[in-house]
Amino acid sequence: MEVIPIKKKTLSSLRLEKRLSQEALSTMIGVARKKIYHYENGLTLPSDEMKQQLCLIFHLDLEDLEDIIENTVDAAKEKTRTYPCTISFRCTEDMYLKIEANAKLANMTVGQYVRETYHGGQLVVLDGLREFLSDLKKIGTNLNQLTALCHMGKITAPDLKSIQKTMNEIFIKLNRMISK
Length: 180
Prior knowledge:
This protein is mainly α.
């Protein structure tokens, strides 16, 4: 089964994560704002010197930045790709709402969603994954606090076998969800 990545990081998404405008980023690296626009839209590629500056600003290594630049170019190609054929079909309102909801969960338009699912791949959208990961993060935080208390000598080695069993069950269930 092929899993289609939902949203890949691009230069513009990286910039927006840092809450920087194109103008602010261009000032930081000493280029015109239009140059940032060209980088983010895959029209030109940053020079090696620019890549080094972007790595410093975004706290990335060069390999990760190269991947993000590749994603940016791919996204730009997808934007300009034309689809000359049109398909329309009738469906119930419930069907449309389900398709629309799934597309929204996948961070896609309805057209993109239908194309990707038909394109031979299988789109996997795991509903509730955000909440699941939040709970998993809380468990990790609690384990870190227990470890810190053990190192401080405030508690002695707690029995974590039940936690280990629960974590194993969680990961088995998660793997089953993903492989469906």
